[in-house]
Amino acid sequence: MFKEDMANIAKKVSWSSRGDDRGERAPLLNGAEDGKHSNRQFSGGGMFHVGSRSTVDLEEEITPEEDIVKSRLKEIPHNEKLLSLKYESLDYDNSENQLFLEEERRMSHMGFRCLEIRRWVICGLIGFLTGLIACLIDIAVEELAGYKYSAVKQNIEKFTEFGGLSISLILWAALNSAFVMVGAIAVAFFEPIAAGSGIPQIKCYLNGVKIPCVVRLKTLAIKVFGVICSVAGGLAVGKEGPMIHSGAVVAAGVSQGRSTSLKKDFKIFEYFRRDTEKRDFVSAGAAAGVSAAFGAPVGGVLFSLEEGASFWNQMLTWRIFFASMISTFTLNFFLSIYHGKPGELSSPGLINFGRFDSDTVQYNLYEIPLFIIMGALGGMLGALFNVINYWLTIFRIRYIHRPCLQVMEAMLVAAVTATVAFAMIYFSNDCQPLGQDSTEEYPLQLFCADGEYNSMATAFFNTPERSVRSLFHNPPGSYNPLTLGVFTLVYFVLAVWTYGLTVSAGVFIPSLLIGAAWGRLFGILLSTITSSQSIWADPGKYALIGAAAQLGGIVRMTLSLTVIMVEATGNVTYGFPIMLVLMTAKIVGDYFIEGLYDIHIKLQSVPFLHWDAPPTSHWLTAREVMSSPVTCFNRVERVGRIVDVLSNTSTNHNGFPVVAHTTENEEPGKICGLILRSQLIVLLKHKVFVERASSRLSQRRLQLKDFRDAYPRFPPIQSIHVSQDERECMMDLNEFMNPTPYTVPQETSLPRVFKLFRALGLRHLVVVDDENRVVGLVTRKDLARYHLGKDGLEELQLAQT
């Protein structure tokens, strides 16, 4: 998850002491503990500029004592009461300048219809490609895990007779570690953002935060490769979470009609090269990912609505649903060919819980309180999971921040997982008869009598998806209570430890597996207490409810998770109990700690905006939260001043109000518009100066296409050469600025500012006085600073990292 994006921070800011020049920022965080450095008010317009290392040069300021402490401890101080300035905001508000309006007015009704058709085509492509990726992951994991388990099984059977089982253990641990090592090296050394499931990063992206590298092609390649390695390596992880990230990356790439990583432009879909359109497609990609993972198209749409998209409309819902349907269909179709039954579309997603038949498994009114108790239990266990993982993640940020250490930790966990699994199978004497209709893929006899198999091996000697299915569907009596109790405890510890490693992996399946194990145990205990062997205490039903409770307790999703579980089990009968259990789990869990994804977002210090402003913030006004003084430009500005302002690394603003005239005595001017850093850079690159236009040196008029071609990686100002003569030229901003930016009076209350900013997806909100003069600028970090703590409203400090 966000876990080792922590590692990502570590690489970007070089908290590791590898020999590059980025280490100069580490002391800033040291200082940030007591607010020495972090309490600077960063004034003015822009969102924070990613990776601008030279903001504060602390090279000379490190005292010898600090140096000694640094070399001795190798510890990164971490303070979650910080808000990182390294994240920029996305701009979901179209800049309605003259160029934009001219283009829109030129377009006919037919032109707009064609655009709409293109949007549908892109959504279909997103669904198709996401389904293909899911298919690739599934087949690769099946083949690799099949090879591994059959090799180890043959080895165990050989040595059970002759002794020397320790060799089997070494083989199993070595195979696990080898797979995981390859996956971890790819993630830690090549693309740390691909670690975890990627759901928190996508949540942030859809919230309007630009997470560096999150939707790059390289990230997708490492993600897919990493998830195959970590699942085949037997870690307590699932491949469902990363599918959501993969779908989002596919969407971001396809909708732009080019790949900036491969430097290949297909010259299609150029109209969609802006944040507004890209966001809508990314939410469709995330939905297609959920749909491929669980075979739940409606669940995918609801996931995007609940967890992701901050902005929504009806047409978008239809397109997202279309992408989800295509994704599930593609996966089914190709998997049916792989399984040798072309055209049979009955296995919906990467995880198929199998069908629960209504007639065999019913529930009664008197079971509802039992379900609520299970929900509360799931909430408490989920909160415990999150608390332990929170402290573990902080430990990782502080001490395990070098890529080589991260790879070693991942290998250690893989070896320990294999060792623990082996020990539990070895010492378990829970033998079950191997029937004719047994669904066991790799039944291990070990020390059981002929015709029997070890039931602990069913849980451990399998891919986690298969284990979940066997817990749901194996007939009553397949497991004894001790096996389930020990398995729950051990797998809980392994899952907490695994989540946060530098590997691509999700938390969905481990959560379901833990919940299914204690849910089944709950069912078995119920039937022993009531002693009557009645059908109502069917352990498979309680396994399903337990799985829902545990997953809900960890990730705290309600709406989408209910539908996903109902669609994955193929039975609507359980809709009500699952919903009840998930709501109980969320209410109980939230009492102790936030959901897992929110914790990791907070640990990243991301300026994430929730749905509403903090409840007690009415006494704050725009004047108190805004950044000031603001750097403004005149409508016709000298090129030299523009270059100097853009090159000033201590401010790194990204938006500049354009005023009628700036006076010498710093009196604020009346607002005429707003221009972005990216627009100014394109203007400088094309040398759009007043003098060149009048002397007819300019070959053609700048078009919107020039701005779209530079998106999304605009060149840095340092790469643009401006001669001394050109510095004296003038630049007319009238045509390119947005003449109608959103503004608020300085007396506006914080909740009102927040609502406007959040609902419209703004990047800059200009604050004006009663004469319409610019007095300040509100950006995302100004609003995200305020949150509700234990003692009422708290203000977070701003830090450079």
Describe this structure in words.
This protein is mainly alpha-helical and about 800 residues long. It folds into three domains: about 1-90 and about 610-675 and about 730-800, CBS-domain (Roll), CATH 3.10.580.10; about 110-340, Clc chloride channel (Orthogonal Bundle), CATH 1.10.3080; about 375-605, Clc chloride channel. Helix content is about 55%, strand content about 5%. The chain has a three-stranded mixed sheet. A three-stranded mixed sheet has the order 13-14-15. β13, α29 and β14 form a beta-alpha-beta unit. α11 (about 295-310) runs antiparallel to α20 (about 560-570) and α14 runs antiparallel to α17 (about 480-500).
Largest sheet: number of strands, sense, barrel closure: 3 strands, mixed
- Percent range for β-strand residues: 5-15%
Helix content class: 40-55%
Distance between the termini: 19 Å
Can you count the helices?
30
**Which CATH class of the largest domain applies here?**
Mainly Alpha
Mean pLDDT: 79
Rg, Å, rounded:
28 Å
Protein name: Chloride channel protein
Domain CBS: 737-795
Subcellular location: Membrane
Keywords: CBS domain, Chloride, Ion transport, Membrane, Repeat, Transmembrane, Transmembrane helix, Transport
Short synopsis of the structure:
The protein is mainly α and 801 residues long. The protein has 30 helices and 18 strands.
Task: Give the helix/strand layout.
Elements: H1 5-12, H2 26-33, H3 64-73, E1 82-84, E2 88-89, H4 98-106, H5 109-162, H6 166-190, H7 199-207, E3 209-210, H8 217-232, H9 240-256, E4 258-259, E5 264-265, H10 275-294, H11 297-308, H12 314-338, H13 368-399, H14 403-427, E6 431-433, E7 452-454, H15 455-460, H16 464-473, H17 481-498, H18 508-530, H19 539-555, H20 559-569, H21 575-592, H22 596-603, H23 622-625, E8 633-634, E9 636-638, H24 639-647, E10 655-659, E11 671-676, H25 677-685, H26 690-694, H27 704-710, H28 724-727, E12 730-732, E13 743-745, H29 750-760, E14 765-768, E15 774-778, H30 780-784, E16 786-789, E17 792-795, E18 797-799
Parallel strand pairs: 1-18, 8-10, 13-14
Antiparallel strand pairs: 2-3, 4-5, 6-7, 9-12, 10-11, 14-15, 16-17
Helix pairs in contact: 5-6, 5-8, 5-9, 5-10, 5-12, 6-8, 6-14, 7-22, 8-9, 9-10, 10-11, 10-12, 11-12, 11-20, 13-19, 13-21, 13-22, 14-17, 16-18, 17-18, 18-19, 19-21, 20-21
